[in-house]
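My current task is to audit a protein record that another person submitted. I have pasted the whole thing underneath without changing anything:
***
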Amino acid sequence: MDALVAQWGLLLGDPFEPGGNCSWVAPATDALGRDLVLKVTWVHEESMHEAEGLAVAGDGAVGIHAYEHVDEATVAMLLDRCRPGAELRGRPEPERDTVIADLLRRVWATPLAGGHPFRPLSDLAEQWTTRAEVLLADDPQRVDPMIARDGFAQFRELAGTGPSPVLLWTDLHAGNVLSDTHRPWTMIDPKPYVGDPHYDVLQHLINCPERLIADPIGLIARIAGLTDLDPERIREWLLARSVVEVAANMSPWQDFAGFWSALSRGATLTAR
């Protein structure tokens, strides 16, 4: 790593604490005096192509000046530093809805050149459902077998169908949006895939658990209206993903049967 710091002409500060689970991040200044961040991350299944995603995402994403795959398991990225860097999750949830919707629309508008490295959403669906099926086999009482079967099948089917594929962030929630002097809010930490934009709103929905549990249909309609998406397709996606989340024991829904029932009743939806 010393060679890369020298190559990029960086003066490093003390790493940010607490650090992340999969990365080492420190403030840096280059020879031009730019306020930067050096991020060295472990390349795992979800984080593949993070640097490439930032390189093409454009307006709304944190700026990336350089990146290098140090080895098969490690990538270093030289990023703009977000200041003041406060997380969007410190703001009221209705404001978060608007910001997240605007940022996602910017991601989806990113042109996808031929030969891009990003995986199809169907790959993610296959990974998640396969893992959930294995975990559910150890505790089959978590989800009714018929609901599990239908939910897994729907997750896979939705991932392979839908509108023309776009670049997806897949993990855009209020903790991955920071305040910045360059623009009001900046996206960080993409987990890029290519596929149906309706999938991309799910992470934000799940990160608003109280509103989602209290009125899933109303929240879906609000987000659909802000993103110009089909609320019915968002509902179908959320039904499928909720099964995967519960089966893998990662669910925010303590009363899954009640949540499933409330979500299932929204057979017809219109955006608000």
Q: What stands out?
A: DSSP finds ten helices and eleven strands in the chain.
